[in-house]
Amino acid sequence: xxxxxxxxxxxxxxxxxxACAKLLSPQSCKLKVGKxxxxxxxxxxxxxxxxxxxxxFLDLKFHDIPNTVSRACSAxxxxxxxxxxxxxxxxxxMMQAARDALGQGDDRALxxxxxVLTSLSDSDLQQIGIQESAAQAALRLAALAQVSxxxxxxxxxxxxxxxxxxxxxAFLRVTPGIRLTDDSxxxxxxxxxxxxDQKRIMTPSRAVQNGASYLVVGxxxxxxxxxxxxxxxxxxxxxxxxxxx
Length: 245
Ligand code: C5P
Known about the structure:
Elements: E1 5-8, H1 14-21, E2 30-34, H2 35-51, E3 56-62, H3 66-78, E4 83-87, H4 92-101, E5 110-114, H5 122-127, H6 134-147, E6 152-154, H7 160-167, E7 172-175, H8 204-209, E8 214-217, H9 219-222, H10 227-240
Parallel strand pairs: 1-2, 1-8, 2-3, 3-4, 4-5, 5-6, 6-7, 7-8
Helix pairs in contact: 3-4
This protein binds cytidine-5'-monophosphate.
């Protein structure tokens, strides 16, 4: 089964990340390794996950001159990752160089672009010379990502519908900010549903109905007392709402 769920392994070291990953299987989810874990533990840890059969999303958001990004993407692809990302603000030439570095094979790594960081408000954008709203800038950068060969974008589930409608279903929408409904919470230890820093959240089924291709889920799984049980509940919720894949 090709799971739509990407568990964000946001841990400070390999030991704690491995303890969580050991509870999970490549059939039940994909895994995301971000800057914290990669900086602490490096490529060896990514290779460990790939060897276990996981699809790994290497979330390093490259943004540099095209030649440097191209070489970084080649190095990431050599680790056997399933997906990696760049900042669309790096420009068309940078995204094309990233895409070219991944080759043409059916099993090549997928390239997704970050449009506008969700931490940036409209006034933050004005400070860096972008006069559009964050939503307008995100759509413009998604268009640039598509013509530059990216396979999709990282976006809020709230934007997934408009991006799918405008750029087509094949252009992937990878959506963080996923939270479970109260009734699917782990009653024994409802830590995963406590309020946290995510503001524009959506449930798994709503996100998929809205057009999300893949759901990035961190703390609701990684802080649960029984992570596999939370994954099963999400899969069940998706199945019940007709998400057959
Ligand atoms: O724990 P939580 O489910 O909030 O984790 C979400 C993951 O998605 C984290 O790794 C976070 O860095 C990432 N992310 C996000 N919002 C974005 C882009 C990435 O939460 N706009």
